[in-house]
TrEMBL record:
GO BP term, pick one: glycine betaine biosynthetic process from choline
Protein family: Belongs to the aldehyde dehydrogenase family.
Task of the protein: Involved in the biosynthesis of the osmoprotectant glycine betaine. Catalyzes the irreversible oxidation of betaine aldehyde to the corresponding acid.
Primary gene name: betB
The protein, known as: Betaine aldehyde dehydrogenase
Catalytic residue list: 162, 250, 284, 461
Length: 487
């Protein structure tokens, strides 16, 4: 088992095992090889992790924000220094090509630790409110023990996007990675200890959909931040509402990417490819409904087809590989079944549409696939596929495309390619989404808020806005005179 960690869980600064938990096999999606065998947390492990976080949180919150920030920034430096090793682990965990993980995964996690470490000292200030003679002040205080629950597409990034703002604000965290990608978060827990975080401030436990509810329902947990699908989001939000807990929901999408006929076509094709094929299409904010204005449809499709057919698919550890496998056999079956539905419902297959010939039989590979002549009612235009399947739809004018782009229950992201600046701003203003791009797609630096609207969730990750979701305001009214009671 070439990626076997010392034990399944990391609690109170050390690795902990409880073999009574259900076995979780970590499978390398490129070959089907079992690379580690872990155990889901038992209720005793969940209690131990939450108790450790609760104990540590008091000491952590009492430190100055600058001191906490210094530790997070040190952790960022360690992640950067170990980028190669962490990227290889991320590739083993997810099957994403090393060409991607080396620039996008541990590095974006490190960005988050560095950013929140840096703003901890200034972004947690309260305010002074003059009231004549009396006055009041506010304090921004941590919530306590926060739970992070991750999806499998960006395991290290998701872990840091939750841990960094939570810890910067003085909370402690118990993080549960996806059962498909259990490995990366354990390394981040080790690194935080190496950087000087007190034991118990950041704990990792393994588990699946049976384990998640134990964390969400735990009486000592104040907040849950989930990255996952809409159905899971509904369950977690409902369970948290039963205890009136804070929640952040980063859920799925079916985002529109609109290309007007005055756009730079090569940029638009590049944006659409990045927004559909990066990470083998397993990105929540992908622009999977690509609306192309009719006049440029043929030109757009021919360039898109040519460029898509040059994508290098293969061994994720080979630096030349541009697209790896999907996360699992089950995900491949799901994606292939959507491709069959696309064909059956009358979309035109432009390229791809099956399993590539020259890759390992046990790997979960699917060809990058483009459908044209997709209409709004087709299943592939309505449901999140979470694979490398791009749907191209035609449109005539601006008002029509805005209405059609918004006709979805999701509202995570949207993009517009046009040379007309005022049209760009007018259109994004009317699109219903949490994160939007003009003349680019899917860029999510830590400085900008990221998150969805409608069924894609609520709350924001990244930027100073994330701190608001890991703190609450405490208001103190200060009476300066004698109390005048009417009785
Ligand atoms: P999923 O919903 O199946 O699982 C997400 C996590 O929730 C896993 O850790 C899982 O074990 C846990 N879980 C499942 N049921 C639970 C329950 N009842 N209570 C508590 N925890 C539970 O999602 P996935 O298949 O791992 O990830 C893909 C989905 O995530 C896609 O829909 C994608 O769009 C979404 N996603 C969203 C974002 C975002 O930031 N908006 C980012 C990445 C992925």
């Amino acid at each position: 088992m070439r990626a076997q960690p010392k034990a399944s869980h990391f609690i109170d600064g050390e690795y902990v095992e409880d073999t009574a938990g259900t076995v979780i096999d970590s499978v390398y999606p490129a070959t089907g090889e079992v690379i580690a065998r872990l155990h889901a947390a038992t209720p005793a492990i969940v209690d131990k992790a939450v108790a450790s976080a609760k104990r540590a949180q008091t000491e952590w919150a009492a430190m100055s924000p600058t001191a906490r920030g210094r530790i997070l920034k040190r952790a960022a430096d360690i992640m950067r220094a170990r980028n190669r090793e962490l990227s290889e682990l991320e590739t083993l965990d997810t099957g994403k090509p090393i060409q991607e993980t080396i620039v996008a995964d541990p590095t974006s996690g490190a960005d988050s630790l560095e950013f929140f470490g840096g703003i901890a000292a200034t972004a947690l200030n309260g305010s002074h409110i003059p009231l004549g003679g009396d006055w009041a002040y506010t304090k921004r205080v941590p919530l306590g023990v926060c739970v992070g629950i991750g999806a499998w597409n960006y395991p290290q990034q998701i872990c840091c996007w939750k841990a960094a703002p939570a810890l910067a604000a003085g909370n402690a965290m118990v993080f549960k990675p996806s059962e498909m990608t259990p490995l990366g978060a354990l390394k981040i827990a080790e690194i935080l200890i190496e950087a000087g975080a007190p034991k118990g401030v950041f704990n990792v436990i393994q588990g699946d959909r049976e384990t998640g509810p134990l964390l969400v329902e735990h009486p000592d947990v104040a907040k849950v931040s989930l990255t996952g699908s809409v159905p899971t989001g509904r369950k977690v939000a409902a369970a948290a509402a039963g205890h009136l807990k804070h929640v952040t929901m980063e859920l799925g999408g079916k985002s529109p990417l609109i290309v007007f006929d005055d756009a730079d076509i090569d940029s638009a094709v590049g944006g659409a490819m990045l927004g559909n094929f990066y990470s083998t299409g397993q990105v929540c904010s992908n622009g999977t409904r690509v609306f192309v204005q009719k006049r440029i449809k043929d030109q757009f499709l021919s360039r898109l087809k040519a460029r898509t057919e040059t994508i290098v698919i293969g061994d994720p550890m080979d630096e030349a590989t541009q697209m790896g496998p999907l996360i699992s056999r089950a995900q491949r079956e799901k994606v292939l079944s959507y491709i069959e539905k696309g064909k059956a419902e009358g979309a035109t297959l432009v390229t791809g549409g099956g399993i590539p010939n020259d890759v390992s039989g046990e790997g979960c590979y699917v060809q990058p696939t483009v459908f044209a002549d997709v209409t709004d009612g087709m299943t592939i235009a309505r449901e999140e596929i979470f694979g490398p399947v791009m749907c191209v739809l035609d449109f005539d004018d601006e008002a029509e495309v805005i209405t059609r782009a918004n006709a979805t229950e999701f509202g995570l992201s949207a993009g517009v390619f046009t040379a007309d600046l005022s049209r760009a701003h007018r259109v994004v203003d009317r699109l219903q989404a949490g994160t939007l791009w003009i003349n680019t797609y899917n860029l999510c630096p830590v400085e900008i808020p990221f998150g969805g609207s409608k069924q894609s969730g609520f709350g924001r990750e990244n930027s100073a806005a994330a701190l608001e979701h890991y703190t609450e305001l405490k208001t103190v009214y200060v009476g300066m005179g004698k109390v005048e009671a009417p009785y």
